[in-house]
Amino acid sequence: MIQPKMNQKELITPNTTAQIYNIIRHNGEINRMGITRISGVSKSTISLQINKLIKLGLVEEKTPPDSSQRKLKLRIREDLGYVAGVFLGITKLSIIIFNLDMQITCERVHYFDSISDPEQCNKEIIRQLKELCAEHGIQRLWGIGIGFPFPVNFREGKPDSPPNVPLWHDYPLRKIYEKEFGCPVLVDNDVNVMALGEGYKGCTTDESDFLFVKVGTGIGAGLIVDGKIYRGANGCAGDIGHIAVDGSAVRCHCGNKGCLEAVTGGKALAVRAMEIAENGESPYLKEVLTRKEQLTAGDINNGAIIGDLSCIQLIKDAGNAIGEVLAKLVSFFNPSSIVVGGGLSGFGNLFIGAIREAVIRRSLHLATYELNVCISELKEKSGPTGAGTLIIDHIFSSQEFTSTIKRNLTPG
Ligand SMILES: [Zn+2]
Q1: Is residue 125's pLDDT more than 50?
Q2: What is the pLDDT at residue 69?
Q3: Distance separating alpha carbons of residues 339 and 361, to the nearest angstrom
Q4: Is residue 171's pLDDT more than 60?
Q5: Buried-most residue among 52, 99, 158, 314 (CB within 10 A)?
Q6: Number of domains in the chain
Q7: pTM higher than 0.85, yes or no?
Q8: Which of 366, 356, 354, 353 shows the shortest CA–CA distance to 327?
Q9: How many whole angstroms from 240 Cα to the centroid of ligand 1?
Q10: What CATH number is associated with residue 392?
Q11: Do 186 and 234 share a structural domain?
Q12: How many CB atoms lie within 10 A of CB 7?
């Protein structure tokens, strides 16, 4: 975003160095004039700060072939350090290690039979992360961001009353990882970090107000407001899985009736698929059920691909129910995009089309005529990418910049 130049006597604060570093970090190669234009800081201050950043080794100057000063480009030294983005699903762990320019250095995936025991599970995550670092000669990390598949008290860095995995409640995640790796750690819920990842490198990179909706076994939303995650007063903003779908009497595990995730979550759809297989409404699902003795959302998708009308209708109905709930959020929040991720986004255009149609039908024209409804571009990488983004933005924030430099660049 281009900001106006300051016309009063400018105030040079320790934040100016962080601000200039972040302009270079977010803009790739940029010259001094570009930094002056974006920051609104005078040329002499820019020069002073850039020399400081070069001396620290954080930034380097790239000499163009004709060596003219005007064209001299600045860039961050990306391999100076590394951050890790860790993302845990119900059974799958994804780790990506990024350099300081958020380029992928290395990555790995590990599967769990169960994540119900936090001690066992975190021991394994730590082992996997250390092993990955060792394999690639990374001696230490500048920071770690982690996304977990349940409600997280962001300030405390602990899970809060996670359904189905009660042992995780209050487990001091952030402290454990900080102690183990000796670097800053931030912990958030899965959908918040997925939203951040999509905004950083996915289909909403130029947008500052959008919704990311994760549709899997559970349903949740991440709200990006003014380029930042909006967490709300208690950190549970976006918990849309328990908004009631009009006219539904399906009982939810939370005790209420008609909750969105009880109507259209992955498990709910599998139960509905079993019903229409058993009553013979769908010959395709009946045949699969006889063969496999159970059905999943993937079977519904396969049925839709080969043209089974009941499977197509199931996907359309699910998209419609989600769209009706999202329409309420669109009227309230006016996002520029709704990005749909999570396992059920694999239903593809049929699903997205039904969501889009319901949102448009139930919202005012002004809120939807430019609204983009799309599938997550980063797909399974949105989680670890967002976790990496969460921590790198934190360690280079104005508040943390000086301690990050001290911790990582001071000799001895
Ligand atoms: Zn509920």
Answers
A1: yes
A2: 56
A3: 18
A4: yes
A5: 314
A6: 3
A7: yes
A8: 356
A9: 9
A10: 3.30.420.40
A11: no
A12: 7
